[in-house]
Amino acid sequence: MSAAEGPLVVGVDTSTQSTKVLVVDASTGRVVASGQTPHTVSTGAGRESDPRQWWDALREALHQCGDAAREAAAVSIGGQQHGLVTLDAQGDPVRPALLWNDVRSAPQARRLIDELGGPKAWAERTGTVPGPSITVTKWAWLAKNEPDAVRATTAVRLPHDYLTERLTGEATTDRGDASGTGWWASGTETYDGEVLAHIGLDPALLPRVVRPGEVAGTVHARDELPFSRGTLVAAGTGDNAAAALGLGLRPGTAVLSLGTSGTVYAVSTRRPADPTGTVAGFADARGDWLPLACTLNCTLAVDRVAALLGLDREAVEPGAGVTLLPYLDGERTPDLPHASGLLHGLRHDTTGGQLLQAAYDGAVHSLLGALDLVLDADADRSAPLLLIGGGARGAAWQQTVRRLSGRPVQVPEARELVALGAAAQAAGLLTGEDPAAVARRWGTAHGPVLDAVERDEKTLARIAGVLSDAAPLLERESNRN
Q1: What is the pLDDT at residue 194?
Q2: Do you find a cis peptide bond into 203, omega within 30 degrees of 0?
């Protein structure tokens, strides 16, 4: 390992599929070591993981980093949001964690919305109208279906809380991750007693919410981890808030994350409260807000269309007149949970490459619709869009976003932004800096800027027209054989 210019910090991304660790020079942002270990997720009706494997994965990923991890002065955990971790009196999991993408609690989500004042009241209370991903619905599902597990539970945590507590021995969380639970009131920034009483969750089971910039504790599990005594532990946060830190986001800068699903978000100084439920009014990890919206169909759906056509994902061809709405898993933005893919305008001379381009167009149309809902009215809509995620380096994705947005696109060169954001948070403990300012000093958002092109209003209008005309068909619930 070459000599570092400053103290070393560790940033962790504990995601659904794996734990990734970066050891970073706090002065320069240079990654000096890294490690990664996979997780196991159940299949079938639910999506569950044993939290103990996250700890084992963290230990293994840290050991892959070698001596660099032993020299770290601070560590922070960024983690998958919304997961419900239930612990017994010995601190062991009562049952596997219910993950964010476990949707069995959809009936509880609908019931809670109705019982506590409707969507508008929930948006004003917690910033978010609960869907099955939100933690409050998972606790309600557990209470109905596994009451013995609820009775055995003496502590309730989120995934990043669980790992932070095992590091420090202290029960803590942060405002960014707490804002995705459904039992944290965004107006008062405290746990909501009425919500907790309604679902039968004792607030004494919940962790303390650590303030931005506050130390959560120091590492006490030294025998299991390659950290020295006194290593500081930051509050950590949820994955989207960590990625925002990793990019050093300023208010109004728009992020499009191209993954299996699409995510759009921006930092805002205004507390969001969208009664339609499209925009999740999350807090960020600094003291501002992180309004966020999702589309269900992004890279996976477009890749599926490419596979059906026997084409490489970049084999697009220009062509007007054909519209493909790639709603292969239903869609969230627009709100069409029962929809399937829809093709309109097919002609004898339509090529496979044109169909593939139409799939990109349909997916990006949904993303840009979500972005319009996330951005504040006074946001600069001519500034570059930050393109991140698995699809961000694909030429077809880049060009489609440019053409349909009419905005320049910037593709950050830095990868593993969640872990980098956690590392920036850890560095902030040592330097007293705002973690986003640390990331900006590190230059994490630097990357090529692709110039704006003329916005393709004709394609946008055609897609909107097909979407409007086909609404009755897309809204119809159908049975799959």
Answers
A1: 97
A2: no
Using CA atoms, how far residue 71 sits from 32, 312, 342, 346, 433, in Å, is 11, 45, 55, 61, 21
Backbone phi and psi for residue 174, each to the nearest 5 degrees, phi listed first: -135, 165
pLDDT in tens, 172-188: 999 999 999 999 999 99
List pLDDT tens digits, range 420-450. 999 999 999 999 999 999 999 999 999 999 9
As a residue count, the chain comes to 481
List the structure tokens of 291: 């309004």
Over residues 390-396, mean pLDDT: 94
Catalytic residue check, 239: yes
Residue with the bigger pLDDT between 237 and 228: it is: 237
Catalytic residue of the set 13, 192, 239, 329: 239
| Rounded Cα distance, 388 and 333, in Å | 19
Strand pairing of 255-258 and 385-388? parallel
- Written in H, E and C, the secondary structure of 208-258 is EEECCCCEEEECCCCCCCCCCCCCEEECCEEHHHHHHHHHCCCCCCCEEEE
pLDDT digits 0-9 by tens, 299-344: 999 999 999 999 999 999 998 799 999 999 888 888 888 889 999 9
CA–CA distances in Å: residue 384 to residues 13, 185, 253, 403, 449? 26, 33, 8, 13, 8
- Return the exposure string of 56-67: e unless at least 16 CB atoms fall within 10 Å of the residue's CB, then b: ebbbebbeebee
Given a cut of 60, whether residue 140 has pLDDT beyond it is: yes
Q: Say if pTM beats, i.e. exceeds, 0.70.
A: yes
The model's confidence at residue 5, banded by pLDDT at 50, 70 and 90, is: confident
27, with CB counted inside 10 A (0-12, 13-18, 19+), is: middle
Q: What are phi and psi of 159, to 5 degrees?
A: -55, -45
**Which of these, 92, 55, 419, lies nearest to 221 by C-alpha position?**
55
**Cα gap 262→241, rounded to integer Å:** 16
